[in-house]
């Protein structure tokens, strides 16, 4: 069995600090840089395949064919998938259509969580170590990996190879057992996880919704911003306060209006219809307007007459 060199406990907090400084440098905001680091993980495995096969034989007495198929090949394929998909996974997405916010172009943006921790198991020590790390880096995080001390040969090989391929302020390996792991868990991490592939990217990604109001929307509802005037208050009241249904006449049959409860007068119905039409043109939804109609109130649909 290969002797595993444990990371000194007193160095672990500084390693975490170095990784946090690496994240705060914002270098990983550059997608090309993320891809270069992810691709280096592939070359780390490919260049040292025989060394990993020997280590797996030492640790688990696993035949080379099984190690190739179950660990090495899976790692390379998984990380390459992450590499090729990175831009698509990181791209902002349009939020589900909602007529209340459509004019503001609601967008879901993918943001990294920070400095994250991966503690990997022993059964597939290459794939389940580097797979989650690739997803975390692809998402823009810096990573600390604590591989299993039960697979000492693989864990030591990772510790020796990672500094040769990956920048030290992006990815570090800490080896050890209970004392080292306890120290790691005492520290604050922005996330922990062990998924691979797209699940890893999603695990280490924070979703932030944004609204980008076009100028005409800000002008329309500009009264919500100070300084407040009587004119602004009148406009806000007209927009916010519901118009009351006709007062019931005692003794007369009451016929509810179809717009009762929506609080929109005819002029504001027209304003909303124009706004929805503008959004549809702007977001290229007009060609598929039938898919949007179900999200609109019935009274709006009837006014749009589409």
UniProtKB/TrEMBL annotation:
<dbReference type="GO" id="GO:0004029">
    <property type="term" value="F:aldehyde dehydrogenase (NAD+) activity"/>
</dbReference>
<feature type="domain" description="Aldehyde dehydrogenase">
    <location>
        <begin position="10"/>
        <end position="184"/>
    </location>
</feature>
<dbReference type="InterPro" id="IPR016161">
    <property type="entry name" value="Ald_DH/histidinol_DH"/>
</dbReference>
<dbReference type="InterPro" id="IPR016162">
    <property type="entry name" value="Ald_DH_N"/>
</dbReference>
<dbReference type="InterPro" id="IPR012394">
    <property type="entry name" value="Aldehyde_DH_NAD(P)"/>
</dbReference>
<comment type="similarity">
    <text>Belongs to the aldehyde dehydrogenase family.</text>
</comment>
<protein>
    <submittedName>
        <fullName>ALDH-like protein</fullName>
    </submittedName>
</protein>
<dbReference type="GO" id="GO:0006081">
    <property type="term" value="P:aldehyde metabolic process"/>
</dbReference>
<dbReference type="GO" id="GO:0005737">
    <property type="term" value="C:cytoplasm"/>
</dbReference>
<keyword id="KW-0560">Oxidoreductase</keyword>
<dbReference type="Pfam" id="PF00171">
    <property type="entry name" value="Aldedh"/>
</dbReference>
<dbReference type="InterPro" id="IPR015590">
    <property type="entry name" value="Aldehyde_DH_dom"/>
</dbReference>
């Amino acid at each position: 069995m290969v002797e595993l060199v444990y990371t000194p406990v007193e160095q672990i907090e500084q390693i975490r600090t170095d990784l946090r400084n690496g994240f705060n440098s914002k270098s990983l905001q550059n997608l090309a840089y993320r891809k270069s680091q992810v691709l280096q993980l592939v070359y780390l495995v490919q260049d040292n395949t025989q060394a990993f096969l020997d280590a797996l034989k030492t640790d688990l007495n696993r035949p080379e064919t099984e190690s190739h198929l179950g660990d090495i090949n899976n790692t390379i394929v998984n990380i390459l998938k992450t590499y090729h998909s990175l831009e698509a996974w990181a791209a902002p997405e349009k939020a589900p259509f909602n007529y209340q916010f459509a004019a503001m172009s609601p967008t879901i943006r993918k943001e990294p969580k920070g400095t994250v921790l991966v503690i990997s198991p022993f059964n597939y020590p290459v794939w389940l170590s580097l797979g989650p790390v690739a997803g975390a880096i692809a998402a823009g995080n810096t990573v600390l990996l604590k591989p299993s001390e039960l697979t000492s040969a693989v864990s030591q090989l990772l510790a020796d190879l990672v500094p040769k391929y990956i920048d030290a302020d992006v990815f570090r390996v800490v080896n050890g057992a209970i004392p080292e792991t306890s120290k790691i868990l005492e520290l604050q991490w922005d996330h922990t996880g062990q998924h691979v592939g797209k699940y890893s990217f999603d695990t280490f990604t924070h979703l932030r919704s944004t609204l980008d109001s076009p100028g005409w929307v800000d002008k329309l509802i500009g009264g919500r911003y100070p300084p407040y005037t009587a004119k602004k208050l009148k406009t806000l009241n007209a927009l916010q306060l519901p118009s009351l249904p006709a007062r019931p006449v005692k003794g007369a049959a009451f016929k509810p209006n179809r717009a009762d409860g929506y609080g929109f007068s005819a002029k504001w119905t027209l304003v909303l219809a124009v706004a929805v039409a503008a959004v549809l043109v702007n977001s290229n939804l007009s060609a598929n307007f039938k898919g949007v109609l179900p999200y609109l109130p019935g009274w709006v649909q009837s006014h749009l007459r589409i």
